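Handout, section B. The chain below has 153 residues.
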Amino acid sequence: MSGVTVTLAEIRETALSVDEVLSSVADARAGGTCLFVGSVRDHDAKDSPGAAGPAERADVTELDYSAHPQAADVARTLAERLAADGRSVRIAVVHRVGKLRVGDLAVVVGVSAEHRGEAFEVCRELIDEFKATVPIWKHQRFADGSDEWVGLP
């Protein structure tokens, strides 16, 4: 398939819009569109120093996302690499940085493709690889007053 387009690959300090991502991946060639929306949940597993078992569940009050200055470039390179294989028509990924509260949108990914299978596959690959490779770090604050950094190298 020719004409695959990366419509968005951005890191922002402003609120994210599912509608913006959805409209950016709309295309007459696409028979399927897949969206992933990641939001701040009210809990997470908190690591306990020296704990041998599973991490304890902790109530999250807020978090701050920080990004390396080249994070948007890394995100665009990833999206362009996935677009180059020809399975999709349009691809978008936007991640928020700064202080977020429970319920706020942290990341929105959109992929349109000729068929639903490819849209699902590329969308999952994009969010999984994004979380694994784009230099964004999460500083969580818990109801008990403790905090934790996630994703540091």
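Note. The mean pLDDT is 92. Compare this with the example in section A.
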